[in-house]
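User: Can you predict the 3D structure of N4-(Beta-N-acetylglucosaminyl)-L-asparaginase? Sequence below.
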Amino acid sequence: AGEKPLILSTWNHGLPANAAALKKYAETNNILDAVEAGVMDTELDMSNLSVGLQGLPDREGITTLDASIMKGDGSCGSVAFVRQVKHPISLARVVMEKTPHVMIVGEGARQLAIAEGFPIEEEKLSPKAKAAYLKWKETSQYKPVINIENHDTIGMIGIGADGKLAGSCTTSGLAYKMHGRVGDSPIIGAGLYVDDEVGAATATGLGESIIRICGSFLIVELMRQGRTPQEACEETVRRLVAKNEKNIKDLQAGFLAINKDGEVGAFAVHPGFNFAKGGLHGNAMIDSNSYFK
Ligand code: SD4
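Assistant: Sure. Here are the predicted structure tokens for N4-(Beta-N-acetylglucosaminyl)-L-asparaginase:
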């Protein structure tokens, strides 16, 4: 069996995010606190243009954020299409813990943030996002580039020493999306799914392709039926490929999974997906295998 506690998260920024999560876990022994604190680090990372308010905007030039959080007992919360909030993951946690709902979007989510005392930020693109947006506007072509514009959402899943699981996922979504577009990251079962009886999974990449197959839920259900996390990720990518044939050459998607024994899996559509794996014995990047070579 794998080690516990263990934290997995997507892409290179997963390394500092895992470190933040493990630090929080050491303080609280609470895996939910850990996965929230972990991705909060990424939400503030000015070099990341796919997470947080510094992320690339939609085609109107407005940055809108999606996030979700889930515990292995089935508790979950998410926000989507939210503006001016620095830590959508913490707002998703508020939805989970303080409201009778699972998902709150748009202006309603911003109002909840205000009511909960979250600071509301001025709506202003980060210098990097602004430069990229102005360049994009020259042609205004909507064409996500594999591993570049689809890149860098953080999905994090973790298991505590007590075997309890939790996960988090936060993003500014696809660059230059239509205003109001929501991706997989805040959709429970698509971008994130956690069940203490089985394991957890999270996703990154072209959200439409992931929502279509309920990607993270599918991985957890395949593990429930006896697949290893690796087998479940591979089968889910095969399903995604089959259901997205038309644009498969141009889309990337990657999945991470962990089971309740702490075994891990990862798989992507195309090469280039990597993830960070962190525990008591270290925190390191691992390259994922992929369906296409
Ligand atoms: C989305 N899945 O909004 C997100 C984007 C992403 O790495 O994962 N970027 O579709």
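The chain is about 30% helix and 25% strand. The CA atoms of residues 163 and 260 lie 6 Å apart.
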